[in-house]
Amino acid sequence: MPELEFPEILTSSRFYLELKLDGSKDSVDGYFMECSGFQVNQEAIEISEVTPQLWGKSGNTKGRVIRTKIPGNATYTNLTLRRGLTCSTTLWNWVQSVQNSGWATQRRNGALVLYNQAAEEKFRFEFKGAWPLCYKISDVSASGSDHEIEEIEVAIEELKRVSPTATNAS
């Protein structure tokens, strides 16, 4: 009897999120070790229609009300990206560009990529039209031994899961 092959469970220790800002001279502008907010919500629109159908006990009541739900707009939650604080000012400069009325030209694309234990790409979420809403650095303490954390929250316009083989082939 042939053995069944189960898909490998992807572990949280084998992922990174990379952010590439258009016009940057760096190959990647940010690697993040923690992210949250990868969520898509589908709105439901309820439609009420009155049909010409006869109904009721005696069968002479006209106009039966029928309610139907159809899909509406998809909405995407904000992404929160965290990493150890670095000397790079790329994220800060991005926030400043948006604050200086440049948000329309500062929307960026990125991807969350997960790898298997052989370091092969197995999972990819791509997001589009991201721009920063909030920038935060953890409290700094000279007496502490914790790493300082840089956090940025970004709004996104689109989120989709794509096949890793499709992105590797291109």
Briefly characterize the structure.
The protein has helices at residues 90-102, 164-169; strands at residues 15-20, 30-32, 34-36, 40-55, 61-76, 79-84, 108-115, 121-137, 149-155, 158-162. The chain is mainly beta and 170 residues long.
What does this structure look like?
- With 170 residues, this protein is mainly beta.
- It has helices at 90-102, 164-169; strands spanning 15-20, 30-32, 34-36, 40-55, 61-76, 79-84, 108-115, 121-137, 149-155, 158-162.
- It folds into two domains: 15-39 and 77-169, Roll (Pnp Oxidase, Chain A); 43-72, no CATH class.
- It is built from two helices and ten strands; from the N terminus they run ββββββαββββα.
- A hairpin with a 5-residue loop joins strand 4 (40-55) and strand 5.
List the defining traits of the structure above:
elongated; Pnp Oxidase, Chain A; 170 residues; eight-stranded antiparallel beta sheet; two-stranded antiparallel ribbon; 10 strands; 2 domains; 11% helix; mainly beta
